[in-house]
């Protein structure tokens, strides 16, 4: 006998019913499976549905399997369709069939359709429960319809007005308009006449988020070619999507390949796997620095003093590149810049890089002069030429860093990659190899006939 | 005579009225001030208000000043209070008084109060137009009230139920509940009884976003100590806030200090100013690498072959540090980790760093062996010891990189800074200096008696 056999409503203590679903989900995440099941059994089924509708709830499929199947069926069937899809997607493949058996045949077929959409597309995050009405319906009729079906709808605030003949989307009307207008008006007469904002099932979630945020919508309809509404993406899903995207962007920028889930829950193997790939790729590219150094070995032997500034100069190129990349990644992601604007950016970064390089160059030359003049270190008789080499080298390398850091996101975008794949370590590696070549070339020009 | 003197409704062409406010705002941003004013003059005032309510509209204060003052007053008074505050905040100080004169004394006083809230706090992004009702009101009365005042409210979907005696917030009820319940019920009887989610005016917008997203709210009330509702923050403002925060986080991570506004609109001076600060700070710290190199100069002269691998080894430390930092910044920002979890993270990063270092170390030793065995380069008779130095050095440096990259965000948080201030260049600089010391120390142990 489980708790669920007792009528749940009677057993549910007030303190549980009065808790927010998000808080209950968090408590469930922190207890053992058995305790979680015992707690869930004491919740009224409506409230349990709210808890399972929280994207934060972990082990959801597993918890459902631990319940009497009738109750599991009631909960799964009551959930919003986007969360049902989430839950099935997260379940192990072997568990999926058991989950499909919990819902009726029609729902199962609809879920299979939703599961077929590409991950992170509008189709994969939409819910199929929305309110629609034929254009000829009166406000009173639509309100009555909403009263009857609202329990099964995720949101009732946007109402999709359909062509009575074809079922195609004509207009969107808000509940707000409905309750403030004459009940005998037709619903179509309340519409603004503006072209409704829509997305297609294959639209990327980032673009969905941009549309919702741009037009301050509570939901955006997902339509097929014939403008039939397949589902809607609601603003709360979009927030989750935006947060997930920024996590991905920051991690990519740091040089980690898409790590999902809380830090402490990533297994050791996963952690190595996600980090070693990029680290090895960067390491192999960075090996070119060893080749560059070998190439300039005779110069190195003649003027070992040059090596002292290699880390300083190289890192400055990487830093200025990383700055430029972070600015450009965001500008491209926010749609402030398009691919064709690359030359405007290049025209800005060139003088910016030269100026920043000149500032660092002057500091660098001062540093060498101070050390020499105050006898902290002896750079030899040609110390002024060495200072000049460092100064000119910095101008060249910082300029090259800014230019390549700002152009890299454009190049990636042009090649069809996400501009956000331009990570700080990637830019640094790119700049390091070329930086060495610039430095030694400058040295050979300035120090020819003296040290070299 | 301006266009605005003609009754605007008559002059507004259908194609304009049928455009979305966000699209009109974008067109206005792309035209000259005079053209923008001419276009605005042809819009019905209600529609012009919608356009001014778009946070994306640039030069808003300036455009208002270009209009006949009666029309400017109508538009400014019709805007949502959060946008009014935005507009005044963005206006030059000298323009502010003129703007205050456009609204009535009560609104002006309320705006001055809102302006006093700290930037990025709930108080600074809230709107004061919301729907509230005393607990004793019936559903029918509340619906009637909404019909009367809805034109002046940003959202009417959450209704705040107040204690009739004290005016304190008791419960939140959704419009959804209202229209699906018996009109003779009291509004309080529709409430869930759950403690309403609230924030205080000083709550940071990041925390406001977290609450709205966690509880899937359309708005969250901002209350004072006596639980009087001062205003609400709506979900669309939160999306803007989340997007702004992630831009800030990526830029900080890239080593740029808070650049606001689209890339191409940042002036050259601003661009240098925002980037030169960090770049110089990093450059000055990185100068320690020159000191470290000078310190090991005798070793360098004896074994110049060691210098060949300095860029390779240093960059690996920086890269692994940057990976760890990006993971930890997000985990801390999303609340997955707390300050007291630092030791758990350290216990994960230590073996992760050793493993990653070992992987790179093996690749590095292979590289040296292959070059030596196939005569691509001659590292001398002690090439095996040099390979070992590089391998062991990499383990040490990558481990140190992972450890310091992961601990730095905790240290910053502990010191009261934003953990997201730990930029990739900052971590790289930190690791570079120590990396050199580790490398040369390893070399002195392994190569003592042979090369050194």
Which of globular, elongated, flat, extended, rod-shaped describes the shape of chain A?
elongated
Beta strand % of chain A: 5-15%
Secondary structure tally, helices of chain A: 21
Oligomer: homodimer
Mean pLDDT of chain A: 88
Short description:
The structure is a homodimer of 452-residue chains. Chain A contains 21 helices and five strands.
Task: Describe it.
The structure is a homodimer. Chain A is mostly helical. Chain A folds into 3 domains: about 5-115, MgtE N-terminal fold; about 130-240, Roll (CBS-domain); about 265-445, Orthogonal Bundle (Tetracycline Repressor, domain 2). Helices cover about 60% and strands about 5% of the residues of chain A. Chain A has 21 helices and 5 strands. In chain A, the strands form 2 sheets. In chain A, strands 1-2-3 form a 3-stranded mixed β-sheet. Chain A has a two-stranded antiparallel sheet with strand order 4-5. The first copy, chain A, is elongated and about 95 Å long. At the A-B interface, helix 12, helix 13, helix 14, helix 15 and helix 16 of A face helix 12, helix 13, helix 14, helix 15 and helix 16 of B.
Entry keywords:
homodimer, 452 residues, mainly alpha, MgtE N-terminal fold, CBS-domain, Tetracycline Repressor, domain 2, 3 domains, three-stranded mixed β-sheet, two-stranded antiparallel ribbon, 21 helices, 5 strands, elongated
